[in-house]
Amino acid sequence: MNVKLGANDMTFEQLRHILEVAKTKSLTVAANNLYLSLSALSQSISTLEAELDVAIFKRSRSGAKLTPEGEVLIHKAEEILSDVDEFKEIALSYTETLYGHIRIATIPGPTTALLSAVFSFKKENPHVTVELQELGPKEITDKLLNEEVDVGLLVAGQTLEVSEERFHFEPLLEGKLVIAVKSDSTIAEQKSMLAEEVCKYPIVLYKDDYLNDALNRLLHAKSNNKFILQTNHTNAITHLVSQGEAITLGLDYSFIDSPGVATVQIDELKDEIVHYGWVHLKKKHMSKTTKAFLRRLNLEIEKRNIQ
After folding, report:
1. How far apart are CA 123 and CA 12, in angstroms?
2. Which residues form a coiled coil (predicted)?
3. CATH 3.40.190.10, domain 96-173+276-303, yes or no
4. Same CATH topology for 12-91 and 96-173+276-303?
């Protein structure tokens, strides 16, 4: 192999280009994600391959596939760019001012505490931008693996993707599964209810594997012909419950700031504790800015005595 060194030495941008193509397996999609023309991206990769005298991708009509040599090089490119991010982080640590962009994905949870953390953190750190989106747990872990978000907020162990091998999980609070009902209904006067009682009411459920599994375990073989729907629209669920149209199953802290909604403990699940916390991809360096935001979020949760 004859590696040519000189004016056209590889750049970090070229490494980012090949990583995006490896992730999407398509030059067209990668070019769109990188805000480049297809010809510019193709030229960037061809120049790098010519400089290294090795084919990184095998191109075809179906897309771009890594060659065996490309598989090795792509892992090294990931390590190099991670080191670059860490280098920048160390340099920025010599100033008190925080910079950067934080991408957060969360399941429905302690919304008020989360939003308060975002607004107060942004006020104190005007050079930081925060992107917040509500997703299901599977979507969150997929985006973490694809490095499309920096940190996820979800319940530990609710999907197989949240593994200790790939992710670091740090609990923020613990909660219990409860039934949410209309606050001035007769059910709300109960301290707890049995699974057989749950079957008597129309149920609307947030679309989530963990909650779906919990409901199935709760009801067992019991028939419930009043099941209305599953949806990711939390406002729609809150509206139906607050109007007495249905009940729902969820984590107790999810309903703290829900007007017109009260929670009732479930006898069969009273000992089941779940933990809500942040999850981060182990192989990706966590920035100083992200760490600072997570400290702020923890303070907001403690301040509101959600525990």
Report:
1. 33
2. none
3. yes
4. no
163-199 residue pLDDT tens: 677 888 988 888 888 999 999 998 888 888 888 888 8
Specify the residue for token string 């419930």. Answer: 224
pTM (two decimals): 0.63
Contact between 247 and 260 (Cβ < 8 Å):
no
208 three-class SS: coil
> Which homologous superfamily is 174-273 in?
Periplasmic binding protein-like II (3.40.190.10)
Tell me which of 24-33, 61-70, 221-230, 239-248 is least confident: 221-230
| Fold classified for 12-91 | Arc Repressor Mutant, subunit A (1.10.10)
For residue 44, count other CB atoms closer than 10 A to its CB: 21
Per this entry, what is the length of the chain?
307
Q: Quick check: 274 and 177 in contact, CB under 8 A?
A: yes
Residue listed under structure tokens 């149209």: 245
Tokens of 43: 């030229």
Q: Are 44 and 17 in contact (CB under 8 A)?
A: yes
Q: Where are the domains of the chain?
A: 12-91, 96-173+276-303, 174-273
Which residues does 30 contact at the CB level (< 8 Å), separation at least 6?
Answer: 17, 20, 21, 23, 24, 41
Q: Is the pLDDT of residue 267 over 60?
A: yes
By CB neighbour count within 10 A (0-12 exposed, 13-18 middle, 19+ buried), where does 93 fall? exposed
Measure the CA–CA gap between 89 and 253, rounded to whole angstroms.
34
The 10s digit of each residue's pLDDT in 32-60 is 989 889 999 999 999 999 999 999 999 98
* pLDDT mean across residues, the chain: 85
Average pLDDT over residues 104-114: 84
